[in-house]
Amino acid sequence: MKAQILHQFGPPENFQLSDIPEPLLIPGHVLIRVRATSVNQVDCKIRSGAVAAIAPDFPAVLHGDVAGVITAVAADVTDFVPGDEVYGCAGGLKGSGGALAELMLADARLIAKKPVSLSMREAAALPLVSITAWEALFVKNHLTAQHKVLIHGGAGGVGHIGVQLARWCGANVSTTVRQPEDFAVVTAFGADQVINANEESVEQYVARITDGQGFDLVFDTVGGANLDKSMQAARINGAVVAIAARSTHDLSPMHSKSLTLSVVFMLIPILKNLGRAAHGDILKQIAAIVDEGKLKPLIDPHHFTLETVSEAHALLESGKAHGKVVITVS
Amino acid sequence: MKAQILHQFGPPENFQLSDIPEPLLIPGHVLIRVRATSVNQVDCKIRSGAVAAIAPDFPAVLHGDVAGVITAVAADVTDFVPGDEVYGCAGGLKGSGGALAELMLADARLIAKKPVSLSMREAAALPLVSITAWEALFVKNHLTAQHKVLIHGGAGGVGHIGVQLARWCGANVSTTVRQPEDFAVVTAFGADQVINANEESVEQYVARITDGQGFDLVFDTVGGANLDKSMQAARINGAVVAIAARSTHDLSPMHSKSLTLSVVFMLIPILKNLGRAAHGDILKQIAAIVDEGKLKPLIDPHHFTLETVSEAHALLESGKAHGKVVITVS
After folding, report:
1. Mean pLDDT across the stretch B58-80?
2. What does the angle CA B134 – CA B267 – CA B330 come to, to the nearest 5 degrees?
3. Are residues B124 and B90 in contact, defined by beta-carbon separation less than 8 angstroms?
4. Count of A–B CB contacts within 8 Å?
5. Can you name the CATH fold of B2-128+269-328?
6. CA–CA distance from B90 to each of B129, B259, B298 (Å)?
7. B59–chain A nearest CA distance, Å
8. Which residues of A touch B246 (CB under 8 A)?
9. Which one, of B110, B102, B98, lies nearest residue B22 by Cα?
């Protein structure tokens, strides 16, 4: 089968279109005819070598997000049959199959039937970002219609799903953006208040939106020094949830406000084979919300194929993508 | 009335036994004839000037923990009548009355009837440490009999209450100590596993007690660099709760294990007049658990009176107290 193969870490040009053996079915798994995959930040970091510890062995097939059609199921798999259209984030990491190939081996617990109202390209944009946002808002926290939530980076990959899921549950949603053109994007996704993070200080928007009390929950999809701003924006006894918290921080604001900080590292179930069924369950709920018309992915208009994976990676890394970067595979 | 008064921050000798006017009753409050008070670390920090922002104005009456008898209630207070024996952590901070005096003005929402099975001295040892431990285990977290909890500093003021409350709810309790004589103390309080933190590494005791998986919850009553050890000892998707988190930390372990970190700053309801009724409710539950024989304070054998408050502070700051340092006031 055709696949984009990585023989060593480095720039996007390191991908090599190759012909490799089809993966063999193993217990608990399915084979998926890959129709589309999307690029996540972690895929670029794996490719570059920035997170070598979680990278698949060389020659490596990258990418976890997949949408496609099941071609074979192991004897012990009862939830799926060949022909099912599915989606999931099912690999691209050490010890698992990858989606940059015509066929992907996937643990059946990590996937679900794809939303019927979405194309394969749209479905492939959702798994990693929607599971991440779901875990941040509804597993690590319990966001409800009684809460005011601030989502940093609401036009980003995880952020734009977070805005929609927060609205879906009825919460009052504020979100930060940095580009003028993103105001319309997050407003269309249902944000109640939009903050230009380049122009308004934390103190200013906490005063404007929460009467100085702070937000019940701050979802930080940006990371780095922004986490300090997230702590600053939370109310007393409030919560912050982050998806990138590898840096060093002064925890004094957590002390003075009795805060709770959670971190979501969405890849753990794949990497550790721990709690995988939770991801399939979340994707079932996401599919239902999508088919109710309450959630849709923002897709960058550029089209890529298995032949142009390098360009897709380069676009995401340029910071100039407008929405998820999706690759049509077959 | 007699009171120990502080006119400026500094060493324990700064206390001055004085005669000051009795406090005036205000709405929502009661007057308590103070029988006993206990010394908490925060009282020493307030006295020294280390946390001047939360200190009462000079001339200052310090100490929040109190046990005593109600002498008067405001017209709008319905839960108490004169003669009630009560306990609570009700002041010693900016804007509130203090317990180092014969009479203390206290918000009725912050106090509860004292456990009938305890002396006034024993009851005065409990409020701050038991509310802190309760909030850490049962408000910020939801510890149950299904969990393995690690309590750092199980022989300390908050720690020895934490060990007993964790046992009370049926959890499996491990605790660290540093003094050989503390092994017997924490074992008597019900610890299932005792760790000598001077001799066993985090990796070693996580392997011994949790088969390398890590603890469901780590309650860090020590703070500082110990918080890094707490993150190290938590399991994937586990939680850490701290009561002193003003320092700077690398959050990478939180990322790699999808951890949750909560901080309890128990004084917020007093300082901010926010959620005070929760403290009275917790103290009611604590009194019931005490009277069931499931919780008791560890009291240092030295006796102090209102005349010897300086010596009581010096003992706590020496690190040589064995249990809570209690002062008999009247």
Report:
1. 98
2. 90
3. no
4. 91
5. Quinone Oxidoreductase; Chain A, domain 1 (3.90.180)
6. 13, 33, 21
7. 25
8. 250-252, 255
9. B102
Q: Distance between CA atoms of A266 and A218, rounded to whole angstroms?
A: 18
The residue written with tokens 């908490």 in the block is B40
What is d(CA A316, CA A98) in angstroms, rounded to the nearest whole number?
19
pLDDT surpassing 90 at residue B246: no
Asked if A275 reaches chain B (Cβ–Cβ under 8 Å), the answer is yes
Determine the residue among A258, A262, A274 to mutate to test chain B binding: the one whose Cβ has the most chain B Cβ atoms within 10 Å: A258
Query: Of A164, A156, A157, nearest to A38 (Cα)?
Result: A157
**Which residues lie across from B233 on neighbouring strands?**
none
Phi (first) and psi of residue B91, to 5 degrees: 170, -140
Q: Where are the domains of chain B?
A: 2-128+269-328, 141-263
Q: How confident is the model at residue A106 (pLDDT cuts 50, 70, 90)?
A: very high
Query: H or E segment at B161?
Result: helix B157-168
Looking at residue B74, its amino acid is A
Percent of chain A with pLDDT over 90: 98
CATH code matching the domain that covers A141-263, chosen among 3.40.50.170, 3.30.70.360, 3.40.50.720, 3.40.50.1980? 3.40.50.720
Find, among A89, A87, A78, the residue nearest to A113 by Cα: A87
Q: Which two tokens stand for residue A76?
A: 């012990």
Q: Say which CATH architecture domain A2-127+269-328 belongs to.
A: Alpha-Beta Complex (3.90)
Of A137, A239, A15, whose CA–CA distance to B261 is shortest? Answer: A239
The verdict on B265 touching A (C-beta cutoff 8 Å) is yes
pLDDT tens digits for range B109-132: 999 999 999 999 999 999 999 999
Tokens 């010693």 belong to which residue? B92
CB A62 within 8 A of CB A98: yes
Which pTM was predicted? Answer: 0.96
